[in-house]
Amino acid sequence: MERDIPAPLTLAVIPGDGIGPELTESALTVLHTLADRKGLPLDIREEPAGADHYRRTGRPVEPGALERLAAADGVLKGPVGLPDVRLPDGTEAGLLGGVLRTGLDTFANVRPMRLLPGVEGATRHRAGEIDYVIVRENTEGLYLSRGAGVATRDAATDQLMITRAGTQRIVRYAFDLARTRAATRSTASTRGPEVVCVDKSNVLRSFALFRSVFDEVAAEYPDVRTDHLYADAAAHALVAHPERFDVLVMENFLGDILSDLGAATVGGLGMCGSGNIGTWAAYFEPLHGSAPTLAGRGLANPTSQILSLALLLEHAGHAAAAGSVHTAVERASADGALRLTSRGTPRGGTSAATQAILARLD
Length: 362
What we know:
Largest sheet: 10 strands, mixed
Shape: globular
Strand content: 15-25%
Order of helices and strands: EHEHHEHEEEEHEHEHEHEEHHH
């Protein structure tokens, strides 16, 4: 009897700018090693995009890119952006957030925060005490005003828009994620699922709508505990008591700020991957920027990109492979093979960090 050959994992890769190509190369090295061991065929195609691509071509992505990215099982994206590549209005050119998030309708920005063994965060907490996910609405909120604000020489305004439909789908995503996380936790754990709504409904009507829709959706999930926090109180609690959180859901701009705050407590932005997930497309990327001053020096921390790969594998239905990547990163951190300097760069550089993770793959 002939052995069934699994369908290939189709992957689109956007190498990005600055340290992006180095990081995506590290993640692909891990993926190829894992695929060889598990007999998983790969179909990987590169998609040029970003600030350097804009500088050379005058466009952030190539024609037809969105259709090609949506056709893949997942997209692995490196950080993009170069500070000297600007639009006439002074904002950075070649950034892909607005292009991909709205173009692919990836409405859920999913940002896990987990303090690993051997990693020193900026607070007094120990490994295992920080393990939550920020679910950030990705297609509306304040960032919907990107490129659409009104400005004169002396004043500028940007509008924040929150819709019922957009809030319903991001809140449902957060509740479903909380249920999934509870189902995969150890049976010895007594912690049930919980979703916290973060907003500024005490000040702005748009956030009052967000909160009211959250409460309506929460009624559909009686097994999931809920809570509410104003954004300023949430910032304090994420530093003082991060162990209390499971899943937090919030508007776009708030999620951007609070996830960077959370990253500081788990070792920095270089330790955090993320996913941008929609109904029919998804892409995965580090939280941090392209760090052009580090580009080409072999100093960048590849962990965020490798953890983004793990999220991609899980989303694409390869949970065992994703688990292998997560375990390898945790082992490398726990036994000291993966250590960060005070600047957040890995000791021994990008290659040493990548090899440490490769050596601990199941």
